[in-house]
Design goal:
Length: 852
């Protein structure tokens, strides 16, 4: 038997199940008891437990169970969500309930309709109501087991669903646009959330979040757009369930600085304008410069005036006297509040603290210069210095145009560092030239080209760069202008025309000038400086040697029209002085009385000679000689002459020599070709002994004379016997005197006391050089070593004897003894005449041996 609040529902009548099958079999037996039980329970309270009885099979006996009352629930409010939970109820035998019915009551006990989250039969032990109306609420839970319902639980403790709120702690807006931060509470979890201006249906504002999170509370952000007027406003937060809350806001929106830029409007590298742009149209401006403070204006500029149009204030700047500068650097602009200054139509004044302007000034070219860095007289670099530090450069040569480059150079590469663009120039094949001429450079804008860190692109039209290329010494040549073998001039040629020169010799230094020359004067004309030298007293020399010229910088010295001062360290000039003939001498090197050599000595060491005899012309060579060969060593050309068949002759006579220029001929190491017109050589051939004969002039068998014949007429002789040495004179003779006539010197000898002797024997004559001795008119002193004279003394009969060699009383032999050993005899009896030979004898034969 079951005791409960109502009858069971049929199988098709509801969601509760029918009684168990065993119970149905006992219905007939217990019908009356069931009716009585119902009647007894009718007056019981709703909280009384239902009785459930079952007949034990086969015995007719059973037991009863009670459907318990619900456990008091707990309600928890979160926003407009109410979570209701309770402890489960079970039958005494442990059978769980099949569900629960949840009911909601207001604080006065009036029941309200439960929302969908807790409506109907709740299978679990908790449920959540969403969007619960604002108020104080309590809940009961009634358990169910099938069709049977137990008593309702006691009411839960009251829970309050509060009204929705929107809280924005900082609701005063100083500048628009603005973003407000706040919180909402009391909203429906999961509801779509929107924000509105001035009413729940007013203009929609951007905000977050878009959906109410669980619990109905969250932080929110709401954007108030620019252009919202300054009147009082409210912000509304509305969810898709109609939940709404608002918060008032105050908007204070003076003109706000939105852009501040500085400009160089005339492109001269100095800031002359600043534009300040504000967030709204500005009212009439009458405050002058007063509200503005400009600090550290580039180039030292100062504020000149202020004008306002629309939402822009234009600050005109008087350019400073400082260096050109378009970099922001520490430049700042500040604006103070001023009732007649920057303000909107509502009179709200703008201010801002010291602010660096945005750089809107393109880098301006300040200097442009060209250089000859390697000092070879050709432009190889251009530098363009700008008014501020430049950004990374990637444009290569593309933005640049170089026209009429000196020497025909071309732009090779461009590098940028700090404020400077360095243009490297490939030197041209043209002549060296450091003058500006019509040289120009131009720059076009290029995204990877000349620009500052702010991206301001620089450009300029064709301009002439400043000349920073020093006049370069291209050539420096030393000359022997008067061709006397002494350097008397140096001509220095520079890479461009020179300015007026007034420095005299001061900037110039000459060291080791040939022949000891000294600096005399300097004159400048065109691109050349002519340095005149006073010839030195030293030996003639056109050799460069260690000659060097130095030029010092001098403000009135060698310089170009741009005042670039030229200088160079001690430098050897190029040898432009050809070898000059200093001496031309003919020689009898073999001492045989015939000219066989000419030496031509020049003013410097000569280069390799390959021209043979071609450049030379020799006329009237003594003895009829001819030019055989030419050899050159150091400063001397030696002409070897094939001796002629003519008589010995060491006189110059009409002998002449000429030299023509020849590429392989006489020249110096610098290639300066030498030549000279028909010239008579100096007589450097000393009188040669061509004959020396000893004589026995008086025929007495004793040498009394030596005659020495020379190759040319001799000069006056006054040396006496001093230069002569006679050794082993036959018969012991001695030198008595010397006389000269024509080409002959006659040595007279005092005969010696020794036996007569006309044999040369070991007789020698020696001639020493003597300034008053044997010499020609050219003062070439003759000499010779100990030399035996030719024998010019015939054998003299000393004794003539007849003999009877057989002792028979008849003459049979005659011996003739002479003054010297006789030569081989082959004449027989022919040369002899014997007269009146005793006993009538006749000459039979002649034999010669030694002197007899």
């Amino acid at each position: 038997m079951i005791v409960g609040r109502g009858a069971p529902e049929t199988a098709g009548g509801g969601s509760d199940p029918l009684p168990a099958p065993g119970l149905r079999r006992s219905l007939a037996v217990v019908a009356l008891l069931f009716v009585v039980a119902i009647a007894l329970l009718a007056g019981a309270t709703r909280r009384a437990a239902a009785l459930y009885s079952t007949l034990s099979p086969g015995t007719g006996t059973g037991r009863a169970a009670v459907v318990p009352a619900g456990n008091t629930p707990t309600a928890v409010a979160a926003g407009r969500d109410m979570t209701v939970s309770w402890a489960p109820s079970t039958m005494s035998g442990g059978t769980p309930m099949s569900g629960y019915v949840v009911r909601r009551f207001d604080n006065s006990g009036v029941e309200d309709t439960v929302l969908s989250g807790c409506a109907g039969i709740v299978a679990g032990v908790s449920c959540v109501e969403n969007a619960v109306p604002v108020g104080t609420w309590r809940y009961t839970v009634t358990p169910r087991l099938g069709a049977w319902i137990g008593p309702a639980s006691a009411l839960s403790a009251p829970q309050v669903i509060t009204s929705a709120t929107l809280s924005i702690p900082s609701s005063t807006i100083n500048h628009l646009p603005a973003t407000l931060s706040g919180t909402i509470s009391g909203y429906v979890s999961g509801a779509t959330l929107s924000f509105h201006l001035d009413s729940a249906t007013g203009p929609v504002l951007n905000g977050t979040p878009a959906t109410v999170p669980s619990g109905g509370s969250t932080a929110v952000t709401i954007d108030i757009p620019a252009g919202t007027d300054d009147f009082p406003h409210s912000v509304f937060a509305v969810d898709s369930f109609g939940t709404s809350a608002s918060n008032p806001i105050s908007i204070i929106d003076p003109p706000l600085l939105t852009d501040l830029r500085m400009y160089d409007t005339n492109g001269n590298g100095r800031i002359d304008r600043v534009l300040a742009t504000f967030s709204k149209t500005l009212a009439t401006y009458t405050a002058g410069n007063g509200p503005w403070t400009l600090a550290n204006v580039p180039s030292g500029g100062a504020l000149a005036s202020v004008s306002v149009t629309g939402n822009v204030a234009t600050l005109s700047v008087t350019e400073g006297a400082g260096a050109a500068d378009t970099a922001v650097g520490s430049f700042t602009v500040a604006l103070a509040s001023n009732a007649s200054g920057i303000r909107d139509a509502a009179g709200q004044t703008a201010t801002f603290s010291a602010t660096a302007p945005i750089d809107a000034a393109s880098p301006a070219i300040v200097t442009k210069q060209f250089f000859d860095n390697d000092g070879n007289g050709k432009v190889d670099q251009v530098t363009a210095v700008f008014s501020e530090t430049l950004s990374t450069y990637t444009a290569g040569t593309a933005p640049w145009t170089l026209a009429n480059m000196p020497s025909g150079g071309t732009l090779s590469s461009v590098a940028v560092a700090t404020t400077t663009a360095t243009l490297t120039v490939a030197e041209g094949a043209g002549a060296a030239d450091t003058s500006p001429g019509s040289f120009t450079i131009a720059l076009v804008t290029n995204a990877g080209g000349i620009r500052d860190a702010a991206g301001n692109l620089s450009s300029f039209t064709a301009v002439a760069p400043a000349d920073k290329a020093t006049p370069v010494r291209l050539a420096m040549v030393m000359n022997d202008v008067n061709a006397n073998g002494k350097v008397d001039q140096v001509v220095v040629t520079f890479s461009e025309p020179l300015a007026s020169y007034t420095a005299g010799t001061t900037p110039w230094t000459l060291t080791s000038a040939p022949s000891g020359a000294t600096l005399s004067s300097v004159a400048v004309s065109g691109s050349s400086a002519t340095v005149t030298l006073a010839e030195g007293a030293g030996a003639a020399s056109t050799a460069l040697g260690s000659f060097k010229v130095t030029l010092a910088s001098n403000a009135t010295g060698v310089r170009d029209a741009a005042a670039n001062l030229s200088s160079f360290v001690a430098t050897a000039p190029t040898d432009g002085a050809k070898p000059v003939l200093l001496t031309l001498s003919m020689n009898d090197s073999s001492g045989n009385g015939k000219v066989d050599q000419v030496t031509a000595v020049f003013s410097e060491t000569l280069s390799t000679y390959t021209a043979g005899t071609t450049p030379w012309t020799l006329a009237n060579v003594p003895s009829g000689g001819t030019l055989a060969s030419v050899a050159v060593a150091t400063t001397t050309a030696t002409l070897t002459i094939t001796e002629g068949a003519g008589a010995v002759d060491t006189t110059v006579g009409s002998f002449t020599i000429a030299l023509a220029s020849n590429a392989g001929g006489v020249q110096d190491a610098a290639g300066n070709l030498s030549s000279f017109v028909t010239s008579t050589p100096l007589d450097k051939s000393k009188p040669a002994r061509v004959a020396m004969v000893m004589n026995d002039v008086n025929g007495n068998g004793k040498v009394d004379q030596v005659v020495v014949t020379f190759s040319e007429p001799l000069a006056s002789y006054t040396a006496g016997t001093a230069p002569w040495t006679l050794a082993n004179v036959p018969s012991g003779g001695t030198l008595a005197s010397v006389s000269v006539s024509g080409s002959t010197a006659t040595l007279s000898l005092t005969e010696g006391a020794a036996a007569a002797n006309t044999a040369v024997g070991t007789f020698t004559v020696t001639l020493a050089s003597n300034a008053a001795g044997i010499q020609d008119p050219a003062a070439n002193l003759s000499s010779f070593v100990a030399t035996a004279p030719s024998d010019g003394a015939k054998p003299v009969l000393l004794t003539l004897s007849m003999n009877d060699s057989s002792g028979n009383g008849k003459v049979d032999q005659v011996t003739a003894v002479f003054s010297e050993t006789l030569s081989t005899y082959t004449a027989g009896t022919t040369p002899w005449t014997l007269a009146n030979v005793p006993s009538g004898g006749t000459l039979a034969s002649v034999a010669v041996a030694t002197t007899t």
